[in-house]
Amino acid sequence: MEINTKSFTLIPMLVLLSIFFHFSLILCKNVNSFTLDLIHRDSPLSPFHNPSNTPYERLQNALYRSFSRASFLKKKYVNPIQSTLIPNGGEYLMKISIGTPPIETLVIVDTGSDLTWTQCKPCVDCFKQLEPIFNPKNSSSYKTIGCNNKLCQGFICNNNTCNYEVSYGDQSHTMGDLSIETFTFASTSGQNVSIPNIVFGCGHDNGGTFPNASSGIIGLGGGYASILNQMHQQIKGKFSYCLIPLESLLDNSNATSHINFGNCAIVSGPDVVSTPLIKKEPSTFYYLNLKGISVGNRTIEFKSSPISPPVGGGGHDQGNIIIDSGTTLTYVPDTFYLNLESMLMLSINATKKDDPSSSFGLCYESNENGTIDVPKIVAHFTNADLELSTSNIFTQVEEDIVCLTIVPGGNQISIFGNLAQANFLIGYDLKANKVSFKPTDCTYKY
């Protein structure tokens, strides 16, 4: 009698997968674990979406935002006193609700910023926004923070009320009361998660280039004022995200990226690689150590000269790159870029082209699939060899042209951008100080 061993082994495997999926759903349906949609600003689900723009126009807009954001992040690295992030430079949006009863609003998600804030009534000066401006008088859970409160350390004291003031690199600003409120998150499980006593900025004077589709910023940086640190009791310092690839956005897809908090943010499995999260100042940023990048069987050593040394000493190359979800491109030192470009040119058998927008240095004529054949590319972080796909490092800028999305960024802090992070489940463990990567189809709806 012949036994079909493939069918025999497949059945228990499907059962195990079903149990694991069911268990994952349970993990992500309570206050300690939840998953939210991350809406890319160019997605059809975003109020920023312009259906008349071509995919390549959307890409160019994302590139302009990336160049501006990278420039200001580097300035913030030099001068952390001033928040120099361009406020409309964020790439992802999140729906949250504030107060009791909860008032829904749309905020820019920013891993390069700590303070969460939203516009509030009464307005001394507020920019126009599509949703109603939050009125703290209508919320039973709202309260301001007094000057003697330890949460007010580092902020401004005025008439026994703790105030905040943030100025941005493009001369935009927000000022108001540092306050406490209940935040409610619309989990993808369909069950809302409410967390009380979140410290945030209730902005009464806000102006500049803030987009009217959003009401403020949710800060997911590593600093003490970050909402992540405030939710530490619930999420235990764990969050992860899965960013869909750019091509899924540019073709008007309704697919969304996701961000996970708590137990369901744990990244595990045989194909996971992890690298230390290095503590440095400013503490807002998430620093990794990149040792080199290999093209085929040849490796280029990564060297940089960070302006601030790692906390607790160590070599100058420790914490030499920040990982940032709000920056589209990946920025590396000029010399390293030239070496990488030369190695790729020797390894790629395709017709070189000029970039029509003059934004990129290395471009090729793409094949019928809108891509090119490249050797195996691996980013070597400390203890983690991360194999990058072609779409992680090359993107289609015109119908028949693809360009390298790793670009020269001067000789300041380097940035590992969101194109390079696409289709990885990336987990941050702020307690164990590590970042984990797992190859994942991020378009999968869960």
UniProtKB/TrEMBL annotation:
It comes from the Eukaryota. Its main location: secreted. This is Peptidase A1 domain-containing protein. Gene3D superfamilies: Acid Proteases (2.40.70.10). It is found in: Secreted. It holds the Pfam family TAXi_N. The keyword Glycoprotein applies. One of its GO terms (biological process) is proteolysis.
